[in-house]
UniProtKB/TrEMBL annotation:
Gene3D superfamilies: 3.40.50.12710. One of its GO terms (molecular function) is protein-arginine omega-N symmetric methyltransferase activity. This is Class I SAM-dependent methyltransferase. InterPro entries: NDUFAF7, NDUFAF7_sf, SAM-dependent_MTases_sf.
Length: 400
């Protein structure tokens, strides 16, 4: 998630938050003990983020915006969602009035609110707008926001899913900052052999890192990446790798028969992700807009995240039977999909100079290289539709 500044002191959590974190800590300790003394890091991350009622995304604390831990692009204002909607409208028009939109992880509902209004204006409304949201708390917040801010006809198009669509469907799948929160295995190399990172307990019950020989799936995935690097990983090199990403992509699109998929996240093409200089991976934790030093600290109170290997995503999408539409920075994507016109239209609706100033600052935050503009990347896929025009500005597919 987007967070800054990273080096200021993080405010201490209150007593209720500490008690909540301690409950999750005890649950994690019990799970480790019941699992023979250690669990894969990916399992630790999964429970820390998604344990029912206790995990970071499952509990009720505010996540998004100034009072939360990070700011996503849709939470900054209307521009991001408006441009994404402009990119998707031609696909929905190609598919016709029975097309659906499925959003993975709806955040606060801010994206859906703007996107639906924009699609209405573009005469490209889907038959339904489905949000796949695993967090009951976030689902309730999304429902409250959209019920309040959408007209009843638009709100009636929205439904919430407990699982990806199972039957055949046509439409668009959209995910903003979802892959970075997938529980990821971590690997390291010892004497040329691949090991997987596990989490164990020390004598005082604190979480500590330990390594165990990797299973065949992770080891093969590491060797696949290694061949593309043109040189072996050096001993001690440690990073993240999602061997389950192809299965995840196939699962979340369900029975998507005809349409497009669009993913926005922070990350790198493979050669940059696994560069020789990045010897400890991309794993990090965020709390109150600052990077936390220890991913084991305060479970349930901080986000744990890793960057995305966009080459792996390209492999997963094409392996699922889609064509790669394009790959570019967030700045290029927004500029190529109506940022200037959306900014001008939004400014024209405002009569307060302070509002117009905030809108221009939003545009800068979304596009400047030192902000979200280059750290965030966009990748699209298509099947039996044309979506490549959304990537005409600054396509970087050659870097994959």
């Amino acid at each position: 998630m987007s967070a800054s500044p990273e080096h200021q002191a993080i405010p201490a959590p209150d007593a209720d938050a500490l008690a909540h974190s301690e409950r999750l800590r005890r649950a994690l300790q019990e799970h480790i003990q019941a699992s023979g003394g250690a669990i894969p890091f990916s399992r630790f991350m999964e429970l820390s983020l998604y344990a029912p009622g206790l995990g970071y995304y499952s509990a009720g604390a505010t996540k998004f915006g100034a009072s939360g831990d990070f700011v996503t692009a849709p939470e900054l204002g209307p521009l991001f969602a408006a441009c994404v909607a402009d990119s998707l409208a031609p696909v929905l028009q190609q598919l016709g009035p029975q097309a659906d939109v499925v959003e993975l992880g709806g955040g606060s509902g801010a994206f859906a609110e703007v996107a639906l209004k924009k699609l209405l204006a573009a005469d490209a409304l889907p038959a339904r707008y489905a949000i796949l949201e695993p967090s009951a708390d976030l689902r309730e917040r999304q429902q409250d926001r959209l019920r309040e801010r959408l007209n009843p006809l638009l709100f009636d198009l929205v439904e919430w899913l407990d699982a990806p669509p199972q039957g055949a469907w046509d439409g668009v799948l959209f995910a903003n900052e979802v892959i970075d929160a997938l529980p990821t295995p971590r690997f390291t190399l010892r004497e040329g052999e691949v090991f997987e990172e596990y989490v164990a307990l020390d004598d005082e019950g604190r979480f500590v890192r330990t390594d165990r020989p990797a299973d065949a799936l992770l080891a093969a995935a590491v060797r696949h990446v290694e061949r593309q690097r043109d040189e072996p990983f050096p001993d001690g090199y440690r990073s993240e790798l999602l061997p389950q990403l192809p299965y995840w992509v196939q699962a979340v699109n369900g029975g998507l028969r005809k349409g497009a998929m669009l993913f926005v996240d922070y990350g790198y093409p493979r050669r940059e992700f696994y560069s020789s200089q990045r010897t400890n991976g991309t794993l990090r934790a965020f709390r109150r807009h600052r990077m936390a030093e220890n991913v084991y600290d305060l479970p349930g109170l901080q986000d744990i995240t890793a960057s995305v290997d966009f080459t792996a995503l390209a492999e997963a999408g094409t392996g699922a039977g889609f064509d790669l539409s394009g790959y570019c920075t967030q700045a290029s994507f927004l500029i190529g999909n109506g940022l200037e016109s959306n900014l001008a239209a939004a400014e024209a609706r405002m009569h307060d100079e302070a509002q117009r100033y905030r809108l221009r600052q939003e545009a800068k935050h979304l596009t400047l290289p030192g902000e979200m503009g280059e750290r965030f990347q966009v990748m699209g896929f298509q099947r039996d539709v044309e979506f490549g025009t959304a990537f005409l500005v600054g396509d970087l597919s050659w870097r994959l």
